[in-house]
């Protein structure tokens, strides 16, 4: 049964999950939102399983168990179910240290290979926190994690390369078929899990046919680690415990998706997501400064280490889907080389557009819509048939991925503007690399995917979206 009150506060679940995760740093947190009809329906539910309650003490055994109120946005399947809330909560530092502790036991049957994949937007957080350049912060973070007992540390940029390349190909195909396919354009980006959850659970068939089918970098990295890398190491996927370090909490929910689950091994492609802030809490708990950690290069999927400097994509605060797809489309469709994009700010700095003119006609019109207020406006235009954009880079967090709630907030939950400015500066200093020029990606297309246009590419790099019945009045939400 769907709850109108839940729907009208749609994606306050992001705040609920955010508050829930911070219990690792404080004694207790309640996701207790005010209801219009009183508080009588609120009942606390313990989100910890009995197995976790009886687990042996870890280095975080003093952290208090949290109780949340499963009302409002967590009350029905329009948003996040109670089961999902419990499973999201279990992705925390306790689970990480539980695996580390098991690896120290004599029973090798319970040992796991610990692999950590770090999102490129998380690294500026550590660089800004400790006044380091991004490359040095990455190497010291790698050294710190390996000091804890992690076996492999990877950079997820390679997964974003795949996602961007597949998104570029799909956009060109959609553009060329726009007169034959009803939902070809606009194409919405698929990298943000908060946006995808909102689109699937609330907007449904109005929007899902327009979402790019390319998997997100996190999903692709999960396939790389539990698929290609596992085979390279002669391991079954369930013997690898794969952790993603990310800037936002929504990625914890993304890790639970059914399309990234291997039923043969009862294993998710991503076992646990820790936010940048949660990793920083581990450092604080151990009284360690990142500057004290040894510099250790990232590992590669091919069994060696990566001695080269880190690279990023051509995005200001994200993986740069808009920039890369726009430049690729201009070249592929109109034989036009675009070196720099000129953004036009519309209603606010989180809603901007870029256009390409040919012969006095606008042939490409792209937009960046960050934050749910701008997303809602975009969806309302689509509903009314007035959305003139060919592509929209959609991100749930205002300000983009660098401003994720798992790293760019003060202790009282407000945006840390000073820290965000520092992150933007150090991120901008990282050199840009085009996905097409990454030799490792080209190698993996052949070794892992059997070619760039193979069936395996569709299976491993693309996904499908559910189309549940839209919630009544879901487009009337006021953000």
UniProtKB/TrEMBL annotation:
Pfam families tied to this protein = Fe_hyd_lg_C (PF02906), Fe_hyd_SSU (PF02256)
Where in this chain does the record put each Iron hydrogenase small subunit domain? 413-469
Q: Which SMART domains match?
A: Fe_hyd_SSU
State the InterPro entries in the record: Cytosolic_Fe-S_CAF (IPR050340), Fe_hydrogenase (IPR009016), Fe_hydrogenase_lsu_C (IPR004108), Fe_hydrogenase_ssu (IPR003149)
Origin: domain of life? Eukaryota
UniProt GO MF annotations: lamin binding
Q: Which GO terms describe its cellular component?
A: lamin filament; nucleolus; nucleoplasm
Please give the PANTHER family that the UniProt record associates with this protein: NITRATE, FORMATE, IRON DEHYDROGENASE (PTHR11615)
| Protein name, entry field | Nuclear prelamin A recognition factor
- Tell me what organism the protein belongs to: Anolis carolinensis
What gene name is listed for this protein? NARF
